[in-house]
Specification:
The chain is mostly beta strands and 134 residues long. Helix content is 5%, strand content 44%. It has a domain of 93 residues: Sandwich (Jelly Rolls). The strands form 2 sheets. The protein has a 6-stranded antiparallel sheet, with no helix packed on it. Strands 7-6-9-4-11 form a 5-stranded antiparallel sheet.
């Protein structure tokens, strides 16, 4: 209906036609290819397609948001093992983690957060003298 708010409208994204953007990570001085689908202004929840190039690992870090990674193709390498296409991996808020692609090839994932995305690297905590514990 024309008088419904935009947030009540169905949205569709053709990832095959969308160009890759970039999530630039200042702390690592690297860009990670992504396609942004949804970001809810009320909750901060977001859904993005992210690709890690072969051999890239996002080193030990934490988020104040929980997030899930659904593997579309390739193999996701994490601190807890590797996961191929069709696997969904959930990372609770505050967990110390690392994840990325294996050396054998890139991994393409669907990345879903439950609230606004943030990232804090263990090396930042170490540099400030704060404990980087579990």
């Amino acid at each position: 209906m024309a008088d419904e708010p935009a947030s009540q409208e169905l949205q569709s994204f053709d990832s095959n036609q969308m160009p890759w953007g970039e999530l630039y990570i200042d702390q690592l001085r690297v860009g990670v290819p992504l396609k942004a689908f949804v970001s809810d202004p009320d909750t901060g929840m977001s859904v993005q397609m992210i690709r890690y190039d072969a051999g890239f690992t996002n080193p030990w870090h934490r988020h104040n948001c929980a997030h899930g990674i659904y593997v579309l193709d390739g193999v996701l390498k994490t601190h807890a093992g590797t996961f191929g296409p069709g696997n969904f991996v959930w990372f609770p808020e505050g967990m110390l983690m690392e994840h990325g692609a294996t050396d054998d090839g890139p991994v393409t994932t669907l990345f879903i957060t439950n609230k606004p995305f943030d990232i804090r690297y263990a090396f930042e905590d170490e540099g400030s003298g704060a404990a980087s514990g579990s």
